[in-house]
Each structure stands twice: as structure tokens, then as C-alpha cells.
UniProtKB/TrEMBL annotation:
Name listed for the protein in its UniProt record: TRAP transporter small permease protein
Keyword Cell membrane assigned: yes
Cellular localization per UniProt: Cell inner membrane
Its membrane topology: Multi-pass membrane protein
Subunit architecture: The complex comprises the extracytoplasmic solute receptor protein and the two transmembrane proteins.
Family the UniProt entry places it in: Belongs to the TRAP transporter small permease family.
Key words, A-Z: Cell inner membrane, Cell membrane, Membrane, Transmembrane, Transmembrane helix, Transport
Xref: Pfam families: DctQ
TM region(s), chain numbering: 21-38, 53-70, 91-114, 134-151
Function: Part of the tripartite ATP-independent periplasmic (TRAP) transport system.
Length: 184
């Protein structure tokens, strides 16, 4: 179990770094959006590339930060059932739901996202909009983002199994408090 927990800590560290880096993309999107608005109003100039780069970066934030959101236990869930369960019951529900829903969904999105990326990469696919950007970076975000989410899902399973085996703390304990910050 200790080697699995070490793997979980490694996945958590990667997820935290990627998630925190992705959060900086929000600032970049805001700056590009504001710059685009200023240039459009002041100089009557605009480009589809400005809009598309905003979409690409927003997609990057969403896809790259999803694993970090899971790690921080901030995904939307139905707390009506969860709040009535013991910590062990919550851990079991989390394991079952991750195995039945999260991991297969991530696997399918990786399986279907990779060929889309490869097709865009090899064909040099461009946006159909005038002045648009190449498409492969946006398509690459799909398998990368869902691979990170899949890995973090495995990390969460490991932590919950360790908790159930009495070899780790409750991984969900204290994470519901938005003021508590965990430093990695």
C-alpha cells in the first residue's frame, strides 16, 4: 500500500502544479479579452485569432484544472446522500462512483480525443474563420486534460482504499471548508 500511496502523492503533486499553472491562464484570457476590446474600439480592428485564442485558453483552464478540482474535492456532488453517510460510507461511494463513472468516461474521451488531435496535427487543420488559428492545440487539450483527470481519479481511489484499510486519513476530511488551504 505504501508504494501506491507514494504514487498517489506523485500524481497529487503533478495535478497541483498543473492546476495552479492553469489558474494563471484566467489572467491571460482576461488580458487578451480586454486588449481585444480596446483595440477593436480604439482602432476599429479585430481578428478572429484573438477570439479563438481566448476559447483555446478557456478550454485549457477547464480541461487542465479538472483534475485539480477533483483533488480538492470541489466537484459538484449530491450532498443530500453524502452528508448522511459515515466517512467510510463516503469513501466506498467515492470509490464505486469513480470506478463506474469517472474512469470509464475519461478513458472514452481519451480514446476518441487522441485520434481527433492526431488528425488535426497531421492535416494541419486550421479554423474555417478568416484569420483563425491552427486547431491541434485545442484538440490536444482533450486527451491531456482527461488523462490528468483519470490519473487523479486513480489517486483518489488509492487514498480512499488506504483510509478503508486504516493506513491513511480520511481524504475528504476538512476539504469541504473553503477557507482551508492545503499546500503542496
Amino acid at each position: 500500500m505504501q508504494s501506491l500511496l507514494a504514487l498517489s502523492r506523485l500524481i497529487d503533486a503533478i495535478t497541483a502544479r498543473v492546476g495552479k499553472a492553469a489558474s494563471w491562464l484566467v489572467l491571460i484570457v482576461v488580458l487578451i479579452s480586454a486588449g481585444n476590446a480596446v483595440v477593436r474600439k480604439a482602432f476599429n480592428f479585430s481578428s478572429n485569432a484573438f477570439l479563438e485564442v481566448q476559447w483555446y485558453l478557456f478550454s485549457a483552464v477547464f480541461l487542465l484544472a479538472a483534475a485539480y478540482t477533483l483533488q480538492k474535492n470541489e466537484h459538484i456532488r449530491i450532498d443530500l446522500l453524502n452528508s448522511k453517510l459515515s466517512p467510510r460510507g463516503r469513501a466506498i461511494v467515492d470509490i464505486v462512483c469513480t470506478l463506474l463513472f469517472l474512469l470509464p468516461t475519461c478513458g472514452l474521451l481519451i480514446k476518441f480525443g487522441w485520434p481527433m488531435f492526431m488528425n488535426a496535427w497531421t492535416s494541419g487543420e486550421m479554423s474555417s474563420d478568416a484569420g483563425g488559428l491552427i486547431r491541434w492545440p485545442a484538440f490536444l487539450l482533450i486527451p491531456v486534460g482527461f488523462s490528468l483527470l483519470l490519473a487523479q481519479g486513480c489517486s483518489e481511489i488509492i487514498k480512499r482504499l488506504a483510509f478503508l484499510a486504516g493506513q491513511g486519513a480520511d481524504p475528504a476530511a476538512g476539504k469541504a471548508d473553503p477557507h482551508q488551504e492545503e499546500h503542496v
